[in-house]
């Protein structure tokens, strides 16, 4: 499903060059749950941003279902991000002035469907994450765990093939973090491909596969090594 082939990403900072990823190759199959681990600055988030269409590689190719997304035009890339990818962020990235339902409806604005259909789809997504009773609540009226569930519902509303979770439990206490991991695992069992970037090794081992990035290089890791 995802094939990263000889990808490098180099950033220019003044006169210096920073190599975020160095000739990285990795395959991720459909319906896998992969944890990407590594120290800060290792290239974890860079890899996620590249596959998620938020950035482009300096060299190499990124194939998703056989199509090289690094060659997509802006309009095609926007469609890819909107229809193929769902993002879950550590900081939730919710609009505080809008209700849970309105937050989840946001990715559907560009889908060309009626407001009623957007509401129906958003309501179903909130029900999937156990928040059908919070549709009218604003983020300030919910706990951190509930806000992250809204974020996950928003990621699911367009029925994406891939969910990227960037430190999804980083802003949560251990109990809420455990509940979010259970939710991600249940979504994976339903067939969603999940790629999770995390510093939390206790949570990393709950994925089916672990990839470590260090100094821009990728290494497969067995759970016994964590």
TrEMBL record:
Keywords tagged on the record: ATP-binding, Nucleotide-binding, Transport
PANTHER family xref list: ABC TRANSPORTER ABCH.1, IMPORT ATP-BINDING PROTEIN
Keyword Transmembrane: no
SUPFAM superfamilies to which the protein is assigned, alphabetical: P-loop containing nucleoside triphosphate hydrolases (SSF52540)
Top-level taxonomic group: Bacteria
Organism of provenance: Clostridium frigidicarnis
Pfam assignment, any one: ABC_tran
A molecular function (GO) term: transmembrane transporter activity
Signal peptide: none
Domain ABC transporter, chain residue ranges per copy: 2-226
The keyword Transport appears for this protein: yes
Gene Ontology terms: cellular component: membrane protein complex; plasma membrane
Protein name, entry field: Putative ABC transport system ATP-binding protein
């Amino acid at each position: 499903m995802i094939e990263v082939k000889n990808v490098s990403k180099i950033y220019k900072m003044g006169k210096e060059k920073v190599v975020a990823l160095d000739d990285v190759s990795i395959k991720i199959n459909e319906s896998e749950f992969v944890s990407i681990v590594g120290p800060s600055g290792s290239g974890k988030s860079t890899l996620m941003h590249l596959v998620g269409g938020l950035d482009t590689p300096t060299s190499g190719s990124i194939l998703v279902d056989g199509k090289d997304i690094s060659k997509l035009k802006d309009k095609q890339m926007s469609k890819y991000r909107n229809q193929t990818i769902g993002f879950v962020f550590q900081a939730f990235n919710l609009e505080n002035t809008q209700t849970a339902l309105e937050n989840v409806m946001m990715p559907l604005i560009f889908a060309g469907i009626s407001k009623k259909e957007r509401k129906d789809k958003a309501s179903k997504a909130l029900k999937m994450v156990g928040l059908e009773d919070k549709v009218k609540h604003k983020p300030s009226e919910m706990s951190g765990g509930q806000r992250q569930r809204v974020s996950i519902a928003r990621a699911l509303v367009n029925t994406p093939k891939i969910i990227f979770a960037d430190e999804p439990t980083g802003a949560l206490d251990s109990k809420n973090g455990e509940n979010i991991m259970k939710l991600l695992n249940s979504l994976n069992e339903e067939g969603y491909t999940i790629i999770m970037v995390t510093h939390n090794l206790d949570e990393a081992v709950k994925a089916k596969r672990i990839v470590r990035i260090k100094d821009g290089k990728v290494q497969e890791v067995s759970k016994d090594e964590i």
